[in-house]
Amino acid sequence: ISSSNVCSALRMFSLERGSVTPPKRPMSAYLRYVVEQHRVLLRQAPDLKIVEKTKKIAQAWRHLTPEQKQPYEIAANEGKLKYKEEVATFKANHTPTELAIFKEEKRKKLTRRRIMRQKRKLTMLGKPKRSRTAFNIFMSEHFDEAKGSTVQAKLKNLQDEWHRLPESQKKMYTQLAEDDKIRYQNEIKSWEEQMIEAGHEDLVRMKQKGRTSAKRAVSKVIPTKAKTSKPSTTSNPAKSVKSKKKAEE
């Protein structure tokens, strides 16, 4: 199934069969406790940050006795049984083709979430912004004054202006783009070295990873002195016997 047809297929199925959302997985006992306590803390301490709330709830959960955790675990087990029934009903009401489309859509959603989490992580770690092209610099300078009531119209007019721009004026933006490229190369190199030192090698480009691993491999190799073979001082018995015979002759 082509991934480009997933969204249109899902819309078609939703019109024909109503809701086509697959059953959601049930919450665990701990998550049920988190939701409950989050509402309590929202009333008691509305100014408390989400990170502090999460830490406080996690600590409280660890100190609960098995008897205190039991209601949440019972609710979680009931949710699992209900989820299994809903999944069986959902599969029975859809064809294998539809189920394959739902699976592909789920995979795409998870991929988008991973990409968004990665972008947020890179932003938090201060990854340098990529270098801009000559046209991007020109567009950022003239976007506000560009003609057009919509973004698309402004972009089209700016593209037309860029094509009509004399080469002598384009050179200025080309030089700015080259300077920005050098800026990015220097900043990304320094940032990647910091990430490697901090243990975030997964965020480093493959070329930089290769150079780093090669350096580490070289540093681990301990040079060993080659053993020089000394000339043997012991004489060969066979040769000595032959020399004696020649001497006697």
From TrEMBL:
Biased composition (Basic residues): 206-218
DNA-binding region: 23-91, 128-192
Coiled-coil regions listed in the entry: 174-201
Matching InterPro entries: HMG_box_dom, HMG_box_dom_sf, HMGB
Region Disordered, residue ranges: 206-249
GO BP: regulation of transcription by RNA polymerase II
Alphabetized GO MF terms: DNA binding
Entry GO CC: mitochondrial nucleoid; nucleus
Name recorded for this polypeptide: Transcription factor A, mitochondrial
Provenance organism: Callorhinchus milii (Ghost shark)
